[in-house]
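Teaching note: in complex prediction, the entire set of molecules is handled at once rather than each chain in isolation. The prompt given to students was simply: 'Predict the structure of this complex.' The entities are:
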Amino acid sequence: MFSLVQVELYKIFKRPRTYIAFGAVAALIGIIQFGLKIDGKSYLDFMLNDLSSSLEIDGKILNGYLVCYVMLQLLLVHVPLLIALIAADMISGEANMGTLRLLLIKPYSRTTLLLAKFIAAIIYTLMLLVWLAILALFGSMLLFGTDDMFLLKTSYVVLLKESDVFWRYIGAFGFAALAMTTVAALGFFLSVFAENSIGPIVATMSVIVFFTILSTLNIPIFNLIKPYLFTTHMIGWKEFFDIKVNASNEAIIGSIQNPEKIIKASLVLVAHTIGFFVATLLVFRKKDILS
Amino acid sequence: MSSVIQVQGLTKKFGHQFTAVNDLSFSVNQGDVYGFLGQNGAGKSTTIRMLLSLIEPTAGHIEIFGLPLATNRSAIMKKVGAVIEKPAMYEYLTAYQNLKIFSALSGVSKTRLQLLHELDVVGLAARANDLVRTFSQGMKQRLAIAMAMVNDPELILLDEPTNGLDPQGIADIRNLILNLSREQGKTVLVSSHLLSEIEQVATRLIIIDKGCKLVEGDSKDLFDTSKTVVEINTLHNEQALQKLLQTSWSDQILVDRCNSKQVIMQLDEKQLPSLHQNLVELGIGVLSVKPMHSLEDYFLQITSTQKYV
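The expected output is the structure of the full assembly:
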């Protein structure tokens, strides 16, 4: 199994397409950091427009932690496309090249081969997130420095002490890894039905866009299905940045407002990932390889 | 001689309409170069894919190296190499990298020098570090053969290995097959739609059409120029075939299953009058007895019946 995973990773990282994702993430983060570095004050003024008259804020609001949060909000919506580029190509791409039949005449079971491919797709996904974390978090900390984190939510403001932020990012990236693994599993599942990469990549993105729209629509009839859509739970990483307050309305350092929500969202995502993989396995084991 | 491949009643249906392979039985002996002959769409590739467990049979039984394929796939595949239709490989990798990957996947640990030697055997050592996407069809075919040989297999399945090759490439493949069989003692199953190609290398062969076996036997017997292939058309071919199978003529019947439209026999030309007489004695309503001189004539007749739109 180990050598199979090694071979799969070797193939992934020898493909120029793989580096599109890493390049795109670097370019997007670089542009946002550049923009905020040059004109961050205008961005803050725009963001705090309604509050500037009622709140007096000291310190360095536009610090690395806030910049990273802003970027995550933007990027975690688009990273699934970059993951789909590889995950949705794992089987269909091989079928298209004709190499799938060569892999399947080697002395491994289809289950082992599929598992190796899935593990490789997850490793790629995690590496993309680590890359994102290095550039978005550590890069921003380096460029903008660190301070307390000021977050503007829909109906309230959250202020996190500087010492209380970093672990939240570790949690948020860990959760994002779960969410992106689910996306990879979806792409992987759709990949088993096609003999070219474009179809499953487009289908993966279409499913995510469609489900995301359903997740965000505030129409009562859709509320029934929302809890079962994995896209509803993909934004669960934000929960790490909601802090609990005590009776005196003081923030409790090291707390999370709604940890049950994170656990529930994680379970839903894990269940979807397992479900997609099992479904892939069931289809793949019976599939006639005609390519 | 022990049987390397034993196929019994192999059938593959796609949906309810199309039967690609119909109740096919044959055996390949150790050391054979077994020619698998049939026109395009006859069911050759489907059969080979079932032998490699790429396609699940609808019915039938396959044994390779004396083991049922369905329950011993991994053990069997360790000793099998294959080139299936057009050569497939990772075009964004070099020839050496492709070979290295398939060496690893076969569970074989080979040094760079060993792999380069294998590329040298197929004449690609000088292009080892070039991307496969820059290769010609012939070079890809040779690399595909090197990839199939990387685990030193006992059984090699080659599906139309000369497709798209120039005359020199075809000759190279032919020599390679002969070398694998005669010098290295490998068992080779090679498919083709060209009888002339199979005739030059095969020790035994099968001809299939529409998924059915037409002819199976030793090449030297089937290509015996002193024998004539005779096509007999009768009022009821199925009954005629059954009657003939119960006589001394049964050894000379070539087509034994599926194709009930004609009875095909291979016999000495001098035997034709007594065959005529026996057919009448057996009460078989003969419409025509058509000598075709050779197996090639018969095969050409099969392939010429294919209609293209």
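Point out the following to students. The radius of gyration of chain B is 21 Å. The mean pLDDT of chain B is 82.
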